[in-house]
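If you are new to this repository, start here. Below is one unmodified record pulled from the training split, so you can see the exact layout before writing a loader.
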Amino acid sequence: MNSTNFRKQMLGASSALRVLAMVGAGVAASTVAITPAAAQDYTSGAITGTVTDDTGANVSGATVTITSQGQGFTRESTTTSNGNFRFGSLPTGSYDIEVSNGGQVGYRAEGVSVLAGQSNAINITLASTGGNVITVVGAQIDNAFEGTTQGLNVDLTELVKRTPISRDLTSVVLLAPGTEQGDSAFGNLASIGGSSVAENAYYVNGLNLTNFDNYLGSARVPFEFLRSVETKTGGYPAEFGRATGGVVNS
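And here is the target side for that same chain:
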């Protein structure tokens, strides 16, 4: 083998090694890049709050217990040094809340509403010692939901009991302020916030079921399958940003 051929083979081998090194680095980078992200859950809600005593001081170490009226499960938490507590990833429905301090129950609430994608913030004042218990009964304790989302969230289980309404998704969406019936040429769809009926996004159990062929409506879901319907007409968070109209979250 002459020196010229030997030099060519060495250069070729060196180039091959560099290519392999680059490919290996690319595979390693790809392995990191394709790590799946945690899924977003738009179907559950939360209960948060602060516990204070009758003087307004925060109560730390108080025991907060919630019980689902519909499913029967119970969760328990302890307030922080600032008197705060939080229960996340709660299925929609009504909950009973009980707060005790030093083994003595001082607060009880029945029928606290949890809606999809929202956090119900409750300010709790414990009763003075002596056996008194503050009991609150109602579908909702505090309407100060976190965030700036505008629209309407309805519990279909309760709605169909009290209100004569067509059993289809559009009829529920049209209950929200700022919505109107769209052009019948495009089907039974709603215009949200003055936008075209093709500018809305539809989610069911966190899954985007929007019809991506023509963006008119979504995959058909039996009305009886839906437990709640939230119509977001504006101010909704970034995860719904692909919609230029409204968002229907079931």
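Two things worth knowing about this chain: The longest strand covers residues 104-114. The first helix runs from residue 3 to 33.
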